[in-house]
Amino acid sequence: MTVKLGVIGTGMIGTDHTRRIQEVLTGAEVVALYDYLPENAAKLQAAHAPGAKIHETGEALIAADEVDAVLVCSTGSTHESYVLGAIEAGKPVFCEKPLATTAEGAKRIVDAESAAGRRLVQVGFMRRFDQGYNMLKATMESDLGTPLMIHACHRNAAVPEHYVTPMAIHDTFIHEIDTFRWLLDDDFVSAQVIFPRKTRHAHDKVADPQIVLLETSKGVRIDCEIFVNCRYGYDIQCQVVGEEGVADLPEPMAVATRREARLSQPILTDWKSRFMAAFDAELQDFADRVPSGHVGGPSAWDGYVAAISSDACVTAQETGAIVDIALPDRPALYD
Ligand SMILES: NC(=O)c1ccc[n+]([C@@H]2O[C@H](COP(=O)([O-])OP(=O)(O)OC[C@H]3O[C@@H](n4cnc5c(N)ncnc54)[C@H](O)[C@@H]3O)[C@@H](O)[C@H]2O)c1
Ligand SMILES: O[C@H]1[C@H](O)[C@@H](O)[C@H](O)[C@@H](O)[C@H]1O
Hints:
Layout: E1 3-8, H1 12-23, E2 28-34, H2 38-48, E3 53-54, H3 58-63, E4 69-72, H4 79-88, E5 93-95, H5 103-116, E6 121-123, H6 131-143, E7 147-155, H7 167-184, E8 188-194, E9 210-216, E10 221-227, E11 235-242, E12 246-248, E13 257-259, E14 262-264, H8 271-274, H9 276-289, H10 300-319, E15 323-324
Parallel strand pairs: 1-2, 1-4, 2-3, 4-5, 5-6, 7-10
Antiparallel strand pairs: 7-11, 8-9, 8-15, 9-10, 11-12, 13-14
Helix pairs in contact: 4-5, 5-10, 7-10
This protein binds nicotinamide-adenine-dinucleotide and 1,2,3,4,5,6-hexahydroxy-cyclohexane (INS).
Residues 8-14, 34-37, 40, 58, 73-76, 78, 96-97, 124, 126, 171, 271 line the site of nicotinamide-adenine-dinucleotide.
Catalytic activity: myo-inositol + NAD(+) = scyllo-inosose + NADH + H(+)
EC number: 1.1.1.18
Keywords: NAD, Oxidoreductase
């Protein structure tokens, strides 16, 4: 069976996901497109999905008989209504991060999915499908003993002018929030953000770098540097310190070159290539599960907890205080 997918939002990641569905994945094809800017949908149709129909609205795409499942790849603030629409239509939906831009919005999705009684929503936290992170998690479970601390960093070469201080949390650190929860099988109880000396390469509206300090319910302490104008590349680091040993996230595979008295190795510069295989794997997993009517991977609950945790981090940015994080009870659907 070929699963027929509709893509809402045909910007950078909607285009990249459509390309991978059409050219890399098996058992799935893109049959429908919608973007708020029709020219964006037309451009993607011409480049990667000539047979796909361009719909007048996202709601029409969700309702279309030929669409088995939906990918929401539009701007973050638009995710909630499309995801709720897909749940109402009983169609599986893959939603790029963030699930919603407010914790209340994410809760509405959790409530709607719980009422539907089955997992219809997968959130695009692709690192859970990354080979390196899976190797790190397996090592933690087999060799490290009880985890005590994590030292991590998330560095982007540069960010655009519209990227402002809270985006370091909502747009960037949100990946780390989900990754730490998943690695540790634990939730956060508090967050603090501190600001080192600012780099001269950051524009006025972004404080850069930042350090986020988290504490989990089991007492694990996490420090994570977010440095989004580091200049030299896209660099994701994670070191877990356990009672019996220490483990590091593997570096992406790269050829080391010896030349003119230098030993060198390239560093990737963008997230698309850094997590290429993880993006392929998360969408293949989604497509494979559509026929069963139940999806897997990061859930709406994970998206909701990420939203609550990131709101606390933004409050911590604004106040300089250590901010408590309290989670509501988890609905049975997510046990
Ligand atoms: N998982 C990841 O690592 C990752 C990486 C990049 C982006 N993202 C997420 O993907 C989403 C899109 O990011 P992007 O970089 O592709 O942005 P983008 O700006 O390139 O594309 C967004 C698209 O959404 C369209 N759009 C805006 N409002 C819409 C609406 N109401 N209905 C339908 N379409 C609408 C825009 O016209 C644009 O084509 C964001 O939520 C972002 O956080 C995730
Ligand atoms: O949307 C992108 C993406 O999520 C990247 O993985 C992250 O490194 C960037 O900071 C963010 O802007």
